[in-house]
Structures are given as C-alpha cells and as structure tokens.
Model the fold of this input.
Amino acid sequence: MDTFLSNVPTEALPFQLHIEREMKELVQVGGYDAIYLFNPEGLVLAAHVDSESMLKEGHAVEFSVMISKMQKVVRRMSGLSDLKEVVIEDQEGKRLVFRFLPVFAQPAILLMVIPAMRSYRGLANRLCRIIEQSSTT
Done:
C-alpha cells in the first residue's frame, strides 16, 4: 500500500493517510519513536509508530485523555489561555510532547514520543501547520 500511496499527490489523499505520510517522514527525519494525533476522548485520528519500546499505544491513549483533562483544569485554575504544549521529560532526556491544536475546528492532541538527545520543536511546528492546513481545506 505504501508503494501505491507514494505515487499519489498529497492533496488527493484523505486526511488520515496524508497526515500519516507526514508523520512517517518526521519520525524518520527526527529519529522519533512515534507520533499520534488524538481527539480529547482518546480516539486515534492518525499515527505512525516506529518503536513501541518506550510507550505502547494503549498508554498513549490514556496519557492523551489525561493531558486533555489536565489542560482544562490548568486553564481554569491558572487563568492562562489555551495551552500550546506540555512536555514530560525523564532523567535520561526522553520526552513525551503533547501539542494542542484544532483539527476540523475541534480540539486535538498531538503526542510525540522523543528519544533523548533529539530536538523536536521545528519538526513539531511544521507538522502542526500541515495538520491545521489539511483540516481546514
């Protein structure tokens, strides 16, 4: 299926396949373990997993739901506007990066599983722009 899809123009792909193609490229370029896109209830909208050694998909779903709820509580208690990002980093430098963005005018959560010693902000910004643009057309 990848061989067929690699010849299809990006603008002709359905949203999920288009975003998963972009995720695959970013996982390879960035050396990431996985990227997931969830709705606030934990429904997977798109994903590309290179290595599940750090975080299993079921746990990713649970984290995304928990972080979505936490975002609402933080906003209400702190007076901050909508959060852009939450990062959880362990002592070894491995990170779970949660980005909040609109998808089809609904809230969504991008979860990136980043190994130690890898940068992510530039690629995350690029992917968020692609997702937002793809969901508004």
The longest helix spans residues 57-78. The helical segments are 2-6, 15-30, 57-78, 121-134. DSSP finds four helices and five strands in the chain.
